[in-house]
Specification:
789 residues, Rossmann fold, 4 domains, seven-stranded parallel sheet, 26 helices, elongated
Length: 789
């Protein structure tokens, strides 16, 4: 074999790996040399390989202005206030420093929480979490999404394993209060996205509680399109020499240049017709429609779904379940042509791709709310349009927008292209009761939202044509607005009180003037009556002519006395709202519940009383021994085992007594039952014997009645033999015939009575047994006497 045939074999040379600590030192040494003017791409910055790989794979190559100016300062450890237009890439401006700082500190899962990102809405937190997953997928750092509406138990078990937590304020505070695994002692970075919203009145208490629990030594990053400069807010966060990074502060407009903004003035009853016509004319575009309340969004979504405009409709509002909200957000991002009805939860930070139109059906609360709503379109070098719908009473909002360098133009509606769905809505509400109820709630919610707005120069509830607005929603008549009625009543009462005060002042002043005039006139009368002049005395007007008034000793004289002179108005106690005191307030369920709570009534407690009115204590439910009662009333926490044993011993004695008493009662009851059984058996035997005797007696009577028509007198002696014949034959014949008739009548009555009165005879037979024997003896004696004679 020649040398050419031999294969070339390269010797494997093992590369020397530089330790990670040296790589980190090299990166940190380059932080101070970052040139903002030359740094255009992310690769120009001293970032770790894991971060750069994640950025390139997700097509993040060039930096935006806010990213170029803030990332380098954040890597140097400065506190930052970042302000930039909507859609300018603020999310990566704070996520990249978070990843790099934790990477340089070689943060692991054992170190616990390193960075905390707080956002005002759940959807924004979810969006930041998804961005972090994409960019930081090659880092060995764990991240967690902690928002309301998710499984709290699942979050509690894994809080100590997360290095970066992206959360909303409410759920974070709940973990701080309830979760022992949550520990933020080692936290390095705090990020507030949409910082002005997080620090406003809505989250003030929650954020104050959160900030108290965070360590004071930390780096703080605040980002928003409308950044707060309030000294109070910054002092709450204890920022250390923060750097204010505002990319577009000196630009001509506050909003993006590619955003075309316009507004229309429209009456309240024509709003729905305008929206319906707008959607029908933009079926091939992606639109977000903002309303001021959740109930309005719900009704408009349900009603427009029934009307079928020809494009897919979605609704995003706060009262939906969190999983449903996340699925709606994802589905709207994927769709090319759709309409999203939303509240202000979709106004901040959410990056919906390729939005063509943003329609603000209700006037925003202030200019900042308008900027965030309109900022959902024209994001990062893309075009978009915004439409603001105003009432004639809300046109001053345009002046406020122009003062903040927001270019907005007025457009007019072409009335020929308006399509009114009012008749269809009326038919839908007439058929569907639930839809009618949602329409009524939407009506009240809109009026209430206008009433609760702070800027009363723009928002005027009394300028709303509520009847026409109710008809435009499809309602036959406008629902009751109870909070507005209460407000009007209160205003009427206050006006009445003011008028009463003014009239009282006028009457008091006039009375003082008349008193002074009377005093001048009475001075002449006093001279005529030779009464000395009495000035400023208490009894000045009590001087009476004795000839006319003769009842000096009566108490009625005090009626005419004036106790004070020249009464000051301030001294008079004015009774306010007398009508309210006289009128009884309606007794609500809440008031009844409060009354019951004040009475301290224990539920399901039954108290028994004896005839004397004393309470019967049930030893089975109440502690009987004094030691047990004292032990129950003790305030000390925990269980004293020794005292508990003594209590059990003493209570056991009462339990034994109660058990013995139960056994005695049981034995007594058994004895009673035995006696009752014996009595019942004896009575049954007697009744059986009586029934047999009654049957025998009845049989004898029936046999006697059938054999002879009358009583058997054959055993008696013949009276003719003894007394002789004393009667005539005619008399005997008549007496015999009468006797036969009587005997026949008696026999018939006897037979009928036997059938009807068998039960009575059965009772009487017992008494007649003894009397029959006596009658027999008396008959025998009578017969013997007759025979002797």
């Amino acid at each position: 074999m020649t040398m050419a045939d031999k294969k070339k074999v390269k010797a494997y040379v093992k590369k020397k790996r530089t330790p990670q600590s040296k790589i980190i030192e090299e990166l940190q040494s380059k932080y101070n040399t970052i040139d903002v003017a030359k740094a255009i791409k992310f690769s120009n910055l001293p970032l770790s390989k894991s971060t750069l790989k994640g950025l390139t794979e997700n097509n993040y190559v060039e930096m935006t202005d806010i990213q170029r100016q803030s990332i380098g300062l954040a890597l140097q450890g400065n506190d930052i206030l970042g302000a930039a237009k909507t859609g300018s890439g603020k999310t990566l401006a704070f996520l990249i420093p978070v990843l790099e700082i934790l990477y340089c500190k070689q943060w692991t899962r054992l170190d616990g929480l390193g960075a905390l990102v707080i956002t005002p809405t759940r959807e924004l937190a979810y969006q930041i979490y998804e961005t972090l997953r994409k960019v930081g997928q090659y880092h060995d750092i764990s991240a967690g999404l902690v928002i309301g509406g998710k499984d709290l138990k699942f979050e509690k078990k894994r809080m100590d394993q997360c290095n970066i937590i992206i959360c909303t304020p409410g759920r974070l505070l709940q973990h701080m209060d309830e979760n022992p695994l949550f520990d933020c002692i080692n936290m390095q970075i705090l990020v507030l996205d949409e910082a002005d919203r997080c620090l406003d009145m809505g989250f003030e208490r929650t954020m104050n509680s959160i900030i108290e629990n965070l360590p004071s030594k930390r780096q703080t990053l605040l980002f928003s399109a409308t950044q707060t400069k309030s000294v109070k807010d910054l002092a709450r966060l204890s920022l250390k020499d923060p750097l204010y990074v505002s990319v577009h502060e000196h630009s001509a407009h506050t909003t993006p240049e590619s955003l075309q903004q316009s507004y229309i003035t429209c009456s309240l009853e024509d709003k729905i017709a305008m929206l319906w016509s707008f959607i029908r004319n933009h079926l091939k575009q992606k639109i977000i429609v903002f309303f001021s309340s959740c109930k309005q969004v719900k009704y408009m979504y349900e009603a427009f779904c029934r009307l079928r405009p020809g494009v897919s409709l979605l609704a995003l509002y706060g009262t939906l379940h969190q999983l449903r909200r996340m699925s709606i957000y994802e589905s709207f991002c994927k769709k090319q042509h759709a309409v999203l009805f939303a509240t202000d939860i979709a106004a901040r930070g959410l990056d919906f791709p390729a939005i063509n139109w943003v329609v603000q059906m209700d006037c925003p609360e202030d200019v900042n709310a308008y900027i965030h709503r309109a900022g959902r379109t024209a994001r990062f070098k893309s075009n978009g349009e915004s439409l603001l719908v105003l009432l004639p009473s809300e046109e001053t909002m345009v002046e406020r927008l122009k003062q903040r360098k927001i270019p907005i133009n007025m457009i007019k509606i072409n009335p020929s292209k308006l399509q009114s769905p009012h008749r269809k809505l009326e038919a839908l509400l007439a058929r569907d009761v639930t839809l009618k109820e949602t329409a009524q709630r939407a009506f009240v919610a809109y009026v209430k939202s206008v009433f609760l707005m702070k800027d009363k120069e723009i928002f005027n509830v009394h300028a709303l044509n509520t009847d026409a607005y109710a008809k435009s929603l499809g309602l036959a008549f406008s629902p009751r607005i109870r909070f507005l009625q209460k407000m009007q009543k209160q205003m009427a009462i206050n006006n009445n009180v003011k008028t009463e005060r003014e009239t009282d002042k006028v009457s008091i002043d006039s009375s003082n003037d008349s008193e002074q005039e009377d005093n001048g006139n009475n001075s002449d009368k006093n001279d005529i009556l030779d009464i000395p002049d009495i000035k400023n005395s208490e009894t000045k007007n009590t001087i009476k002519n004795t000839a006319v008034l003769q009842f000096d000793d009566s108490d009625d004289d005090d009626i005419l006395t004036i106790k004070r002179k020249n009464i000051d108005v301030d001294d008079i106690p004015i009774m306010e709202n007398d009508d309210k005191r006289n009128k009884k307030k309606p007794l609500t369920k809440v008031a009844l519940a409060k009354k019951i709570l004040k009475k301290k009534i224990i539920p399901n407690k039954k108290i028994m009383f004896n005839d004397e009115g004393q309470e019967l204590i049930d030893s089975a439910k109440v502690k009987m021994s004094e030691l047990a009662r004292e032990y129950e009333n003790e305030v000390d926490s925990g269980i004293n085992i020794e005292i508990a044993k003594q209590v059990l011993r003493e209570e056991d004695q009462f339990d034994k007594q109660r058990f013995r008493a139960k056994i005695r009662e049981k034995h007594k009851e058994e004895k009673r039952k035995l006696k009752a059984a014996k009595k019942a058996e004896a009575s049954e035997e007697e009744e059986d014997a009586d029934d047999e005797e009654m049957e025998n007696a009845n049989n004898d009577d029936i046999s006697d009645g059938e054999s002879s028509d009358g009583p058997d007198l054959s055993w008696l002696p013949d009276p003719d033999k003894i007394y002789g014949k004393q009667r005539n034959t005619d008399d005997e014949a008549s007496s015999a015939s009468e006797f036969e008739e009587k005997s026949e009548e008696e026999s018939t009555v006897h037979r009928s009575s036997k059938r009807k009165l068998v039960t009575q005879e059965n009772k009487i037979r017992k008494k007649q047994k003894v009397s029959d024997v006596d009658n027999l003896q008396a008959d025998e004696e009578l017969a013997l006497q007759l025979l002797q004679n």
